[in-house]
Write a structure and sequence with these properties.
This protein is of the alpha/beta class. It folds into 2 domains: 2-97, Beta Barrel (Elongation Factor Tu (Ef-tu), domain 3); 110-237, Rossmann fold, CATH 3.40.50.80. It is built from 5 helices and 12 strands. The protein has helices at 77-84, 120-132, 153-162, 192-201, 213-225, and strands spanning 2-15, 18-24, 36-40, 53-57, 66-72, 90-97, 110-115, 138-144, 167-173, 186-187, 206-211, 233-237. The strands form 2 sheets. Strands 4-3-6-1-2-5 form a 6-stranded antiparallel beta sheet, with no helix packed on it. Strand 7, helix 2 (120-132) and strand 8 (138-144) form a beta-alpha-beta unit. Helix 4 crosses helix 5. The radius of gyration is 18 Å and the shape is globular. The chain starts with a strand and ends with a strand.
Length: 241
């Protein structure tokens, strides 16, 4: 992987407990939607050797003039150091890496299934697809506990409204009993019944999974039970990022 220098340009809360960090895009940095970078922070007092690096999927699309990563702000030394970085701080990026990228056969639909912050690689893919007006059917199943926890939800809803022929969003919430916001969409996990329903509505999709390991494993089993060939399933697990 190549190494680049980049400055932190800004940060914002995009869901409860979830932050997006905006970095300048280094000259010559080229990536495919769905790929990732390693983000190396400068020295910080509470970072021990080897803990200054984390891998993040890139949430921004290649056509954009910045690199954006998003993460749950858990109480770890790395997250504390990341959140404390002054705007303008220079960091190191290594990459791109990863193969969770969109297949090239436009005749086959893409079925994305994301849990929580696993949405990030799919944001890059969907943003670029909308910009390029790809003639390809895409469906996103997006599971969160509550609307408050769902990063990029408003943007995804807008994308679905703007291109109803090509992109369908099925957002579902699993913990509405603890929500302070109204929700008239689907509830419950991405289970076998939902997977079977969607797979019956689209022909021979390539399936992409990203989220917590237990969620990825459960959905992979549901896809198998629904008759999806294992060769048509691609996945990435998020360990607390």
């Amino acid at each position: 992987m190549s190494t680049y220098e980049a400055k932190l340009q800004g940060r914002e809360e995009i869901a409860q407990g979830t932050m997006a960090f905006h970095f300048e895009k280094p000259a010559g940095f080229i990536f495919k939607p769905g790929q990732a970078i390693d983000l190396l922070l400068p020295d910080a007092p509470d970072l021990v050797a080897g803990s200054a690096r984390h891998t993040f999927s890139i949430a921004s699309a290649p056509f954009q003039d910045e690199l954006v990563v998003a993460t749950r702000m858990r109480d770890s030394a790395y997250k504390r150091a990341l959140s404390a970085l002054p705007i303008g701080t220079q960091v190191r990026l290594e990459g791109p890496s990863g193969s969770l990228t969109l297949h090239s056969d436009r005749a086959r639909p893409a079925l994305f299934m994301a849990g929580g912050i696993g949405i990030t690689p799919f944001m890059s893919i969907l943003r670029q697809a909308a910009k390029d007006r790809l003639p390809q059917q895409m469906v996103l199943l997006y599971s969160n506990r509550r609307p408050e926890d769902a990063a990029f939800l408003a943007e995804l809803q807008q994308l679905a409204r703007q291109q109803p022929q090509n992109f369908r969003l099925v957002a579902t919430m699993t913990g509405m009993g603890k929500s302070q916001q109204p929700w008239d969409g689907a509830t419950g996990a991405i289970d076998e019944a939902l997977v079977r329903q969607i797979c019956a509505e689209i022909a021979a999709p390539i399936c992409y999974l990203a989220g917590p390991p237990a969620m990825v494993e459960a959905v992979r089993h549901s896809l198998g039970d629904a008759g999806v060939n294992d060769d048509d399933i691609r996945s990435e697990e998020f360990y607390g990022y």
